[in-house]
Amino acid sequence: MNEANKILEKYWGFSEFRPPQEEIISSVLLRNDTVALLPTGGGKSICFQIPTLVNDGICIVISPLIALMNDQVKNLKERNIKAVALTSKLSQNDIITLFDNLKYGNYKFLYLSPEKLQSPLILEKIRQLNVQLIAVDEAHCISEWGHDFRPSYLQIHVLRDLLPKTPIIALTASATKKVLEDIILILNLVAPKIFKKSFYRENLAYQIFDTEDKLFKVEQILKKTKGVKIIYVNTRRKTVELSNQLTSLGYKSICYHGGMSFDEKLNAYENWLSEKSPIIVATNAFGMGIDKANVRVVIHYDLPKSIENYVQEAGRAGRNGKKAFSVVLKNKAAINDMQTLFVKTLATVTHIKKVYFQLNQYYQISYGELLEKTYDLNLSEFCGLYHLPVVITYNAIKTLHKDGVLLFDEKFDRKSTVKFITSNENVFNYCDRNPSQEALIKLLLRSYGGIFDSHKTINENYLCKSLNSSTSNLIKNLKTLHYDAIISFHHANSNAKIQFLVPREDDRTINMFVKNIEQRNRLKKEKMTSLVNFIENDNTCRNIQLLTYFNDNNAHVCGICDVCLSKKKTPTNTFLKTRDIILKLLKLKGELSSKEIVLKLNISEKEIIFCLQMLLEKNRIGVTSQNKFRLIN
Predict the structure, then answer these.
(1) Which runs of E-coded beta strand occur in 23-98?
(2) What is the C-alpha to C-alpha distance for residues 319 and 204, in angstroms, rounded to an integer?
(3) Distance between CA 566 and CA 165 in Å, rounded?
(4) How many CB atoms lie within 10 A of CB 344?
(5) Residue 321's Cα: distance from chain center in Å?
(6) Dihedral of the CA atoms 126, 128, 133, 135 (nearest 10)?
(7) How far, in Å, CA of 209 to CA of 19, rounded?
(8) How are strands ordered across the β-sheet holding 109-112?
(9) pTM here?
(10) Helices 349-362 and 514-536 meet at what angle, rounded to 10?
(11) C-alpha span between 471 and 487 (Å, rounded)
(12) What is the pLDDT of residues 539-570, one digit of tens each?
């Protein structure tokens, strides 16, 4: 380990490893297959980077996201360590040049997605390299029991077949016992050494608030805690809406979601990273690989998808070891909506059979026939033709993909963009000359703020409905504006690709996978139930609940979560103290609304409302015509 310590100090500037990094690195250096379960921010990357730098040869790193790969490659290059990412932007000639550099250019790391392992060219080029280690990052993606299962991760075993003597290290921040078993089985790990660090974070306070006015609660949190923050919501539209609301309230906020262009995402991320916009409102597309040490608060404005998602997202706070907060905002309506949506979007066996039958009808495939061709699929048009709900249909097709009935290449998620490239005056002059385009131009200007400054992602369905126009006519008009140099219009391919992998046998085809489908659906229900139980359990320490879920034996009372803090307070003392503070504040300020009082005091909203009610009953305070509280002399 002496050499490992020297490399750590040389490239990272640290003099010692964090537990259990040293033990994991020793295991890898001894060429053992290894599994490392470390919490978010636990320093997983060093566990494969240091052994690679100690020995000769290359480390192949399997990673699920291009952004995550690019970020790690950038960090290594900044330390003068040669690394490269194999992305979809590279041509075949670029790929050949890249592998020549890997072979002869003293490179140490090759990052690639699991999808790339389906290429015979890439596998042959890997065979020619001196590969000393294979690292599988975000290894929970390999299991259907994990929270982010990706079918492409099932392809990683080909590396074990190709390089049987090369050790594998699998790394993840969240894995239950079942997920761990799948990682070992599917990667074909041989007598793996397993290292598991407790998920306990002594500096991270888990807090769940019951509130009907979420925006007010967010504003209250922002006023009381300074520093960098992440706010998670569940829809792209809400990222924009909430970020705009916070900006209007005077906060420096920016939004981030999966529908943004690469440049928009990069700009948002860099503004947040530099703290030009210290608050980022995001969907969970803002996730893996986000490593900023001084995040003070992570707020779940909407309920997280699962406990696994929650732990990963909450764990982005307080990586510098200082006090940090994970806040979940809940209310009965939000929980009911989540449960209702779950039922409405769950693809049952009946749904899947119906969608499979209609797909075969749509492409006019005969019973018993299998054609080796790829079909375009416009999901909206397909669902409209057969009167199918879009989300359930999408989930059904994803299930058919997972079970090997068909291949589903999701390209329909790419969005068209528009930017006005001429002056306001020229736009209005153009409208006078081309009155048929005026309605579209005004709708674009009304719907997308900042459309003169940057490309904006447009919702073609919304524009069509607003203009009572067909999609083809809308695209034609947008292209006309583009050719007339009024706008810059990028028309994305809205079609997915489908290829059938088995002959058509209707119900008999699906019946082979019924047990798998029902098992996965049961798992989804269990995950949702576990999440609801966690959110609604106000009696057991949050830390104990989370660690128990992950079979962590280090479960003990944290003392800083909302449950623990509520047990520390004595009702009488709390009431008397809060009462005196409120009376003093009203004496100083005169008249204040309940919201103004909550924002000024570092006391829970629930306590303040209760105390105000008691003071009203005792006739110590009164209410003005503007619904503000005042002292009664």
Answers:
(1) 34-37, 58-62, 83-86
(2) 9
(3) 55
(4) 10
(5) 23
(6) 0
(7) 34
(8) 83-86, 109-112, 58-62, 131-136, 168-172, 34-37, 193-196
(9) 0.72
(10) 130
(11) 18
(12) 999 999 998 888 877 778 899 999 998 887 65
